[in-house]
Write a structure and sequence with these properties.
Elements (H helix, E strand, L loop, with lengths): L14 H12 L2 H13 L3 H29 L3 H8 L6 H33 L10 H11 L3 H18 L2 H28 L4 H9 L9 H15 L5 H6 L9 H28 L14 H8 L3 H34 L4 H21 L14 H28 L2 H8 L4 H27 L4
Helix pairs in contact: 1-8, 1-12, 1-14, 2-10, 2-12, 3-4, 3-9, 3-10, 3-12, 3-16, 3-18, 4-5, 5-7, 5-14, 5-15, 5-16, 7-8, 7-14, 7-15, 8-12, 8-14, 9-12, 10-16, 13-14, 14-15, 16-18
The structure holds phenylalanine (PHE).
Phenylalanine binds next to helix 1, helix 2, helix 10 and helix 14.
C-alpha cells in the first residue's frame, strides 16, 4: 500500500531474528503441555526415540521444503503458491493452511488463557498451597465456568494482536528477540532444579531408557508423527509465511537445521523438567492433558520453593505459547494483508475477532456447551483432531508433492539452497518418495481412526 513498509516490503532485520521467530513458533504449548502428556501416555523413552527419528527423517526436510516455497514465492500462504504455480489449484494448499491456522489459534488461545490465569494465581499466592477440594477439582470447575476463562483467553489474544499489528521487524522480530533467550534460561533453570530432586533418576530413566517391546505398538508411531508436525509448526504454511520475509542473501539450510534441533532440545529439556518432578513425587506420568494444570501444581505445592518454581513455570508456559500464537496469527493476517489487500491493522482485527468467537466455542465446550460432542470429542478436541491429524499432515503432503512433482528438479533444488550434491539428492529423494509414502500411511491411518 504505502511506499515504505507496505505490502511485501516488511522483512526480518537479520537472519538470526528470523531463526528466533521460527523457533518461537515451534517452541510452544506443543513442547511443554502436549509433548509431556503424549510422551507420558505413550511409553516415555520409546516415544521420544520415534519422535526424534521422525523429526530428523521427515520434520526437518519438510521444514526446508516449506521454507523454500515461502522464500521463492515471497508472499503469504496463498500468494506464494499463486506466484510459483499461476493458474493452478495449488494455492488451495495455502488456503487450507490459513483455515488451519485460525482453527489452531482458536483453541490454542483457550489453553494459553488457562496458563495466564495460573500465572496470576501463582503471582497472588492463591495456588501456593492446595485449594479446597484439590487442584483437580479447582481446574475442572475453572475450565467449565462460562465467563472467567474467556476473559483470560481474550487478554492473551489482545496481546497477540498488538504484536502482530506492528508487523515483522517492529512487532514479531522484536518480541521474539526477548522471549526466546528468556525462555531458554528459565527452562534450563527449572530442568537443573528438577535434576536435584530425589527421584530425578527415575524420571530420566523413564525419558531415556526405551522399552523395546513398545516398538510394535502402532499408535506410538502415529502419535509421534503428529507430535513432530505440531511441534515444528509444519504443514499449515505458518513457517512458509515467516520465510517469505527473508532477504535474498539469507540462506535456508543451516537455519532450518538449527530451528529443528532447537525445537527438539526444548522438548527434551521440558521433558527432563517435568518428568524428574513427576517421578520424584510418585505421580502417574500418564495423567493426560491435565498433567501440566493439575499434576504439576500439586507437585509444586509440596516441593521446596515450589511457589517460585510455579511462578517461573507458568511464565515460561505463557511466553512459549505467546510466540507460537503470534506466528499462528501472522499466517492468516499475511494472507488478508498481502493477497486480499486489507491493511495489516484491519486484517489483524478481523482475524482476531474470528479467532475469539471460535475460541469462545472451544472454551464453552468444557462447560455449558459440553453436550456438543462428536464421537466423544468436545469442541476443542474436534479442532485439535481436525488440524493436527488431518490438516497438518495433508498440508505437508501437498507441499512435498508440489515441490517434488510440480516444480522441476532444478527449481526445487535451487529453492532449497542446499549446496552439496549429496544433500541435494538425499533431500530430493526424501520429499519425492519417502515422505509422501509415510504421509499417506499416516493420513489413511488417521482417517480410519487408528489414532
Ligand atoms: N509448534 C507450536 C507448538 O509446539 C504450535 C504451532 C503449530 C504453531 C502450527 C504454529 C503452527 O506449540
Amino acid at each position: 500500500m504505502n511506499q515504505t513498509g507496505g505490502i511485501g516490503h516488511d522483512q526480518w532485520k537479520t537472519r538470526f531474528g528470523f531463526m528466533l521467530a521460527a523457533m518461537g513458533s515451534a517452541v510452544g504449548l506443543g513442547n511443554i503441555w502436549r509433548f509431556s502428556y503424549v510422551a507420558g501416555e505413550n511409553g516415555g523413552a520409546t516415544f521420544l526415540l520415534i519422535y526424534l527419528f521422525f523429526t530428523l527423517l521427515i520434520g526437518i526436510p519438510l521444514l526446508l521444503t516449506e521454507f523454500s516455497i515461502g522464500k521463492a514465492g515471497k508472499m503469504d500462504a496463498v500468494g506464494s503458491f499463486k506466484k510459483l504455480a499461476p493458474n493452478t489449484k495449488w494455492h488451495l494448499t495455502g488456503l487450507m493452511g490459513v483455515v488451519g491456522g485460525i482453527l489452531i489459534l482458536s483453541f490454542y488461545t483457550v489453553v494459553s488463557g488457562w496458563s495466564l490465569f495460573y500465572l496470576y494465581r501463582y503471582l497472588t499466592g492463591a495456588y501456593w498451597t492446595e485449594p479446597d477440594g484439590g487442584f483437580g477439582a479447582a481446574f475442572d470447575s475453572w475450565i467449565a465456568s462460562p465467563i472467567a476463562p474467556l476473559f483470560w483467553q481474550g487478554l492473551f489474544l489482545v496481546a497477540t494482536i498488538l504484536i502482530v499489528m506492528q508487523g515483522i521487524k517492529k512487532g514479531i522480530e522484536r518480541a521474539n528477540n526477548v522471549f526466546m533467550p528468556a525462555l531458554a534460561v528459565l527452562m534450563i533453570l527449572l530442568a537443573v532444579y528438577g535434576l536435584t530432586l530425589e527421584g530425578a533418576k527415575d524420571g530420566l530413566a523413564f525419558l531415556f531408557t526405551p522399552d523395546w517391546s513398545q516398538l510394535t505398538n502402532p499408535s506410538i508411531y502415529f502419535m509421534a508423527m503428529g507430535q513432530a508436525f505440531f511441534s515444528l509448526s509444519i504443514g499449515i504454511c505458518g513457517m512458509l509465511t515467516y520465510s517469505s520475509y527473508l532477504k535474498e542473501k539469507d540462506r535456508l539450510p543451516a537455519a532450518t537445521v538449527g530451528i529443528g534441533i532447537m525445537d527438539t532440545v526444548f522438548a527434551v529439556i521440558a521433558g527432563v523438567m517435568i518428568f524428574t518432578a513427576v517421578f520424584s513425587f510418585d505421580v502417574d506420568p500418564s495423567s493426560g492433558p491435565p498433567l501440566v494444570f493439575i499434576t504439576l501444581p500439586s507437585i509444586f505445592a509440596s516441593m521446596p520453593a515450589g511457589n517460585v518454581v510455579g511462578i517461573v513455570f507458568f511464565i515460561l508456559l505463557t511466553m512459549a505459547a505467546f510466540s507460537s500464537a503470534i506466528s499462528l496469527l501472522e499466517l492468516p493476517v499475511a494472507y488478508f494483508h498481502r493477497t486480499l489487500g486489507f491493511t495489516r491493522k484491519a486484517a489483524t482485527l478481523i482475524i482476531g475477532s474470528i479467532v475469539f468467537v471460535l475460541g469462545v466455542a472451544a472454551s464453552l465446550g468444557f462447560g455449558i456447551w459440553g453436550g456438543v460432542q462428536l464421537g466423544g470429542n468436545n469442541i476443542m478436541d474436534m479442532m485439535d483432531n481436525l488440524t493436527a491429524n488431518i490438516i497438518l499432515p495433508l498440508g505437508g503432503l501437498l507441499m512435498v508433492l508440489f515441490v517434488g512433482y510440480y516444480l522441476t528438479k532444478e527449481q526445487a533444488i535451487k529453492n532449497s539452497e542446499l549446496e552439496t550434491p549429496f544433500l541435494q539428492s538425499a533431500w530430493y529423494l526424501l520429499i519425492r518418495y519417502i515422505i509422501p509414502v509415510i504421509m499417506v500411511v499416516i493420513l489413511v491411518g488417521s482417517l480410519f481412526g487408528i489414532i
